[in-house]
């Protein structure tokens, strides 16, 4: 079991304009989170995206050839997506909303 002494935390301090803090507070409140939790989660999520965008993917020449074969193969229609795309939009189908 971890004890309080085992936990390592590193404080981060920022100076932000009042308008930024107000926006962060509003968003945190909408999510039911504290400002600290909201900012930490947003920062970690942004950091993960950057790391994943810059991650090197390695594969064998055979694996790359298979990958390219899949990418260059003709697309196979998905019937549900085709049906959805062919449906008229609500504003084109004569729908009228009552107020």
From TrEMBL:
Q: Which Gene3D superfamilies match?
A: Single helix bin
Coiled coil, from the record: none
Pfam families tied to this protein: TacA1 (PF08681)
Instruction: Write down the species.
Output: Chelativorans intermedius
Q: Which InterPro entries match?
A: Ribbon_hlx_hlx, TacA_1-like
The family database entries (SUPFAM superfamilies) matched by this protein are listed as: Ribbon-helix-helix
Keyword annotations of the record:
DNA-binding, Repressor, Toxin-antitoxin system, Transcription, Transcription regulation
What is this protein called in UniProt? DUF1778 domain-containing protein
Q: Does the keyword Transcription regulation apply?
A: yes
**Family affiliation:** Belongs to the TacA antitoxin family.
Query: Keyword Endoplasmic reticulum: yes or no?
Result: no
Q: Which domain of life is it from?
A: Bacteria
């Amino acid at each position: 079991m971890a004890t309080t002494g085992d936990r390592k935390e590193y404080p981060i301090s920022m100076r932000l304009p009042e308008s930024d803090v107000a926006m962060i507070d509003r968003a945190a409140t909408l999510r039911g989170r504290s400002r600290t939790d909201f900012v930490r989660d947003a920062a970690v999520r942004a950091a993960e995206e950057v790391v994943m965008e810059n991650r090197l993917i390695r594969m064998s020449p055979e694996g790359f050839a298979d990958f390219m074969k899949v990418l260059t193969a003709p697309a196979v229609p998905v019937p549900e997506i085709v049906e959805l795309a062919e449906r008229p939009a609500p504003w084109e189908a004569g729908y009228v909303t009552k107020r």
